[in-house]
Design brief:
This protein is an alpha/beta fold. It has 2 domains: about 15-135 and about 290-305, Aspartate/ornithine carbamoyltransferase (Rossmann fold), CATH 3.40.50.1370; about 140-290, 3-Layer(aba) Sandwich (Rossmann fold). About 40% of the residues lie in helices and about 15% in strands. Strands 7-6-5-8-9 form a 5-stranded parallel sheet. A 4-stranded parallel sheet has the order 2-1-3-4, sandwiched between helices. β6 (about 180-185), α7 (about 195-200) and β7 (about 205-210) form a beta-alpha-beta unit. The longest helix has 21 residues, at about 285-305. The chain binds phosphoric acid mono(formamide)ester and norvaline.
Length: about 300
């Protein structure tokens, strides 16, 4: 178990950490990645256990947390709604009290942000958001780490968000406010970001554009996500119609800066939110982005359990 000396710190949304803590995490992730590439052992979390709770499907989040924890010398327990008492209405409070007596760290992918917050309030150990309807902080942590690897500091830069005002868009807005860059947001009408849900303080760090082409103008990074997020499948047909003009294609990429990057958290639907020529083209860094989930989350888990080590 985690020694009680360490202050309990959760990662439930991007704004849970400061700009200074992010600066630490990005440089720590780079060190951890370098060691991984060199096959150098890095067992900073030896004998620690991570519980992963999935109430929605996952490929990247599951593999990156599970492989990452083993590489840090620890182990994992994988739970889903279907194979645990979570799916049979055991109260979240009780589940949190029990699970957090047996493991050192908990990662949760669920629906409402209120559920993960309730779990965290009753947990003895750090809780990490592996995606909720409202936020996906681990993804933006990896995305910004990827941007820095390719282009250097993100402060002062412009990120174009083309698509749904969803968990990814909300998290980009929190990151922009905290790390000093601007988001150009273009969403179809009816799918706008709700500033109260995004949990940002002001409007200085983002600009809203009706036309996605205009949002891309002068952008350093163009990014998008699926038209229909998990949990919203019943809206699929209506969304396909509403989002038809929000496909990141080569014309949109030409509106951005010539050295602009393209990112997508994946899974992607070629021909819907992104053209195959873009996601498989020279400006796309989606495979680095996916891989960096693991390196960034290793730095995050280490930080939440041990603080600034190394
Ligand atoms: N980007 C992401 O979170 O992917 P998974 O849904 O596969 O975990
Ligand atoms: N916005 C998407 C992201 C998937 C990684 C969803 O919530 O389904």
């Amino acid at each position: 178990m985690t020694p009680p000396a360490m202050t309990l710190k959760h990662y439930l949304q991007f704004s849970d950490l400061t700009a200074d803590e992010y600066a630490w995490l990005f440089q720590r992730a780079a060190i951890i990645k370098k060691k991984f590439k060199a096959y150098e052992k890095h067992h900073s979390l030896a004998d620690r256990t991570l519980a992963m709770i999935f109430e929605k499907a996952s490929t990247r989040t599951r593999v990156s947390f599970e492989a990452g924890m083993y590489q840090l010398g620890g182990s994992v327990v994988h739970l889903t709604t279907g194979d645990s008492q979570l799916g049979r209405a055991e109260p979240i409070e009780d589940s949190a009290k029990v699970i957090s007596r047996m493991v050192d760290l908990v990662m949760i992918r669920t629906f409402g942000q209120d559920k993960i917050e309730l779990f965290a309030r009753h947990s003895r150990v750090p809780v990490i958001n592996g995606l909720t309807n409202e936020f996906h902080p681990c993804q933006i942590l990896a995305d910004i780490f990827t941007y820095i690897e390719h282009r250097g500091a993100i402060a002062g830069k412009t990120v174009a968000w083309v698509g749904d005002g969803n968990n990814m868009a909300n998290t980009w807005l929190q990151a922009a406010e905290l790390l000093g860059f601007t988001v150009h947001l273009s969403t179809p009408s009816g799918y706008e970001v709700d500033q109260a849900i995004a949990g940002i303080r002001g409007t200085d760090s983002y600009k809203v554009f009706k036309d996605p082409m205009q949002a891309c103008q002068g952008a350093d990074l163009v990014t998008t996500d699926v038209w229909t997020s998990m949990g919203y499948e019943a809206e699929n047909e209506a969304r396909k119609k509403a989002f038809a003009d929000w496909c990141v294609d080569e014309e949109m990429m030409r509106a951005a800066k010539p050295d602009a990057l393209f990112m997508h958290c994946l899974p992607a639907h070629r021909g819907e939110e992104v053209a195959a020529e873009v996601i498989d083209g020279p400006q796309s860094v989606v495979w680095d982005e996916a891989e960096n989930r693991m390196h960034a989350q290793k730095a995050l888990m280490e930080y939440l359990l041990l603080g600034r080590v190394g």
